[in-house]
Amino acid sequence: MVKQMKTHILGFPRIGADRELKTALEAYWQGNLSQADLLQVGQQLRAQHWQLQREAGLTWVTVNDFSFYDQVLDMSALLGVVPPRYQHEGGVVPLDTLFRMARGRAPTGADTTAGEMTKWFDTNYHYIVPEFYPKQAFSLSSDKVFQEVTEAQQLGHEVKPVLIGPLTYLWLGKTKQTEFDKLALLDQLVPVYCEILRKLAAQGVTWLQLDEPILSLDLPEEWRAAFAPVYQTLAETGLQLLVASYFGALADNLQTALQLPVQALHIDVVRAPEQLLPVVEALPPHMSLSVGCIDGRNIWASDLNQWVQRLTQLKQQLGERLWLSASCSLLHVPVDLAAERRMNPEIKAWLAFAVQKLRELQVLGVALAGEDDAIAHSLQLNAAAIEARHVSPRIHKPAVKQRVAEITPDLSERSSPYEQRAAVQKRQLQLPLYPTTTIGSFPQTAEIRKIRFDFKQLLMGREEYERRMQNEIKSVIEQQQALGLDVLVHGEAERNDMVEYFGEQLEGFVFSQQGWVQSYGSRCVKPPIIYGDVSRPEPMTVAWSQFAQQQTKLPVKGMLTGPVTILQWSFVRDDQPRAQTCLQLALALRDEVLDLEQAGIKIIQIDEAAFREGLPLRRAEWDAYLTWAVKAFRITASGAKDETQIHTHMCYSEFNDIMPAIAAMDADVITIETSRSQMELLDAFQDFDYPNEIGPGVYDIHSPRVPSVEEMQQLLIHARQRIPAERLWVNPDCGLKTRAWAETLDSLRNMVTAAQRMRGEEVKHCH
Ligand code: GLN
Ligand code: ZN
Questions:
Q1: What DSSP letter does each residue of 528-559 carry, written as one string?
Q2: CB distance 409 to 362 below 8 Å
Q3: Which amino acid residue places its CA nearest to atom 6 of ligand 1?
Q4: Ligand 1: which atom is nearest the Cα of residue 734?
Q5: In the prediction, which pLDDT does 600 show?
Q6: Per CATH, which fold does 400-766 belong to?
Q7: CA of 492 to the centre of ligand 1 (A)
Q8: Catalytic one among 702, 718, 765, 767?
Q9: Phi and psi of 221, rounded to 5°?
Q10: Residue 605: nearest ligand to its CA?
């Protein structure tokens, strides 16, 4: 057999190459699949994924990376952290209880509020937030990890189970009822971890992977100090421990990591290549180093020859103590490139999904073990692909690069400051006080989706498609007029997704057929891939917006997705900085803004739904990000004349710490999500005087509930205490595409009435 270095992964995608898990889960939830059959699907997927790892010659298969919903939720079940509302009486947490914790309902058990869901670090994966109550107890309450170990062992695999480390687990949770110091829970928590570790050891497990991604965050000193004693206790169980850091550099947590009494440390050298040498330099002799050099967050083929070169020296230094891995779990990339039968073969050669990344690890592992002959051909092919990508005219468009190079400061400045623009816009638009509007999309009915689907499958001709969509626009405009809204939208019926719609029309993007990545539970997304210099062959939205504007005298907003959001929700190039790609997007969108204006559109909204989530994990990197992100937005918007009103929209309400950057975007109007937090967001306006107009969402579109007039008026009264009436807009907190028409009409009717009452009061005030 060919020799190979120690190689492993931190985790494999669990949804299945054909999203088998999604299908099975949804069938089970709907009562169309038995629990036994669901468990069977899980077992098959695990067996397949382990087999793939074994075929790639990995030293261990990773166990317990599988989950029916979420690995953090599984951890809560394992530790017995089940909030009281699920009425769990102790013992093993049943699968349906787990699903109720995740989604509020399951085939058995009472419906109950689901746990909060939030983003896993800076990824688009969402986990269920653990809830810690005063006097929180922990107890071993799940067999999952032990059963999966047995399952893998029975298949003849060398196993390395994975758990979330105790400090990361605590960090991710929220205290409930009263606020208290989560670290105080360690005394109860660590013994349960020890119990788990001892059980695993008794099963014959030798290595355990403990994920501690918080080692890549800015940590308070108490948290940093908690690591050593906790791991000292865990080490006493006799299990060999691999502590995994990822998503960034250890930086100021480096000493903390190196001083742990563990046998191996994993570092991410894709996100933080600069840490490789310093870590090796300081690595204590008892520690092995798992080098995460294959990108677990992106879909590009690695430059293997370069890694062989860089790691050869390290191999001599560390010998057996050098392990090879992907930077983080492969959860964040699609499963198998082989499923892409329609992708351009030239572009396909540049990519690697999870299965291909296993093969990359194998090639690296064999090459570094000195068995070059066995994989010479693979290394040659890899070199050829890397070189082709480097010079391909498909990617490199001199005109695009030149345009970015020639960006001058005036490109990111509107002609006049906000006050002047506002005066011109006021004359031009003649809007009432408290103008009402919506965020862009109207309900996407089954009929609309069918029309789009038929058109895409070539079952419907272009003419017919356009006629049907225009009818939809006409009807949406009529509805809005009947409701008495002041600023209308065309409804976005032609858009399947706010990023994909633009990606499909821009050059430099490619779309996979099967490139699904888990977002949460059974939900998957298929991010576009930005592979080359971005340009806009022709207008993307103008015809729809123009048609809509022709149907009414009221202003209809042009509707674009902003450069930062397109970037954030795509797989992006790794051969140039994100900022560069973002500026290319900004220039393409800028042209669209100008074309919309030319076509008579007076208000243009540039959605930046993902602006906040692009923020780096480390505070020290915020400024750099905000600088280019704000610049990209301003370049997109600033070609517009003073009289053209620029709107932006953002989801998520945690803006307090980036208010100055949001103000610096200098949109004339911003609409934001606030209604779920009862305008809590507005507290930010206490400390920071937002200079332009703002529409704090007055109702939550994520629920079908129809809010009353009084309720919305109350919110507006609250908002008016912080924002002067002349600068206050009235709108829902996000797009309406997931809602049904009935509740949409009722809600908007109430919203318009609330705005009218506010105006009425204003009149009384003046007299
Ligand atoms: N204009 C988009 C819509 O209304 C905005 C969606 C979003 O913010 N996520 O659907
Ligand atoms: Zn939104």
A1: -EEEEEEE-SS-SSHHHHHHHHHT-SS-BEEE
A2: no
A3: 735
A4: 8
A5: 98
A6: TIM Barrel (3.20.20)
A7: 9
A8: 702
A9: -55, -40
A10: 1
State the pLDDT at residue 610.
93
- From the candidate CATH numbers 3.20.20.210, 3.30.450.20, 3.90.1150.10, 3.90.550.10, the one assigned to the domain spanning 6-296+322-331: 3.20.20.210
Is the Cβ atom of 499 under 6 angstroms away from ligand 1? no
Ligand nearest, relative to CA of residue 735: 1
Helices 354-368 and 372-391, axial angle in degrees (round to 10): 130
Task: Indicate the pLDDT class of residue 692, thresholds 50, 70 and 90.
Answer: very high
pLDDT exceeds cutoff 90 at 651: no
Q: How far away, in angstroms, is 512 Cα from ligand 1 center?
A: 23
Ligand at minimal distance from the CA of 734 is 2
Probe target for ligand 1 pocket from 442, 476, 489, 498, with the most ligand atoms within 8 Å of CB: 498
Cβ(737) – ligand 1 distance below 6 Å? yes
In total, the chain counts a number of residues equal to: 767
For residues 416-448, one letter each, b for 16 or more C-beta atoms within 10 angstroms of the residue's C-beta and e for the rest, the string is eebeebbebbeebbebeebbbbbbbbbbbeeeb
d(CA 666, CA 651): 17
CA of 228 to the centre of ligand 2 (A): 42
Q: Which residue do the tokens 């120690």 mark? A: 6
The stretch 368-385 carries a mean pLDDT of 94
Work out which ligand 1 atom sits closest to the CA atom of 605: 1
Q: What's the whole-number mean pLDDT along residues 419-441?
A: 98
> Cα dist. 456→308, 460, 462, 515, 670 in Å?
44, 8, 10, 18, 34
Instruction: Tell me the C-alpha distance between 178 and 175, whole Å.
Output: 7
Please tell me the residue having the least CA distance from ligand 1 atom 10: 735
Whether ligand 1 lies within 6 angstroms of the CB of 607 is answered as yes
Which tokens belong to 271? 């996100």
* Mutation choice for ligand 1 from 488, 489, 492, CB with most ligand atoms inside 8 A: 492
Is residue 489 lining ligand 1, measured as CB closer than 6 Å?
A: no
Task: Compute, in angstroms, the gap from residue 35 CA to the centroid of ligand 1.
Answer: 37
- 152 pLDDT more than 80: yes
CA 122 to chain centre: 7
Say how far apart CA 508 and CA 498 lie, in whole Å: 17
Q: Please confirm, yes or no, whether 702 is among the known catalytic residues.
A: yes
List pLDDT tens digits, range 255-300.
Answer: 999 999 999 999 999 999 999 999 999 999 999 999 999 999 999 9
Cβ partners under 8 Å of residue 652, min gap 6:
612, 613, 673
Alpha-carbon distance values, 734 to 259, 353, 372, 557, 767 (Å): 47, 33, 56, 15, 36
Q: How far is the CA of 734 from the centre of ligand 2 (A)?
A: 4
List the domain boundaries for the chain: 6-296+322-331, 400-766
How far away, in angstroms, is 439 Cα from ligand 2 center? Answer: 7
- The model's pLDDT over 314-326, given as tens digits with 9 standing for 90+, comes to 999 999 999 999 9
Q: Do domains 6-296+322-331 and 400-766 have the same CATH topology?
A: yes
Phi, psi torsion values for 367, nearest 5 degrees: -60, -45
Q: What is the mean pLDDT of the chain?
A: 96
Percent of all residues in the chain with a pLDDT value above 90, rounded to a whole number: 92
Are residues 43 and 345 in contact, defined by beta-carbon separation less than 8 angstroms?
A: no
Which three-class secondary structure state does DSSP give residue 686? helix
Report the run of H or E that residue 119 belongs to, with start and end: strand 117-119
pTM of the model: 0.95
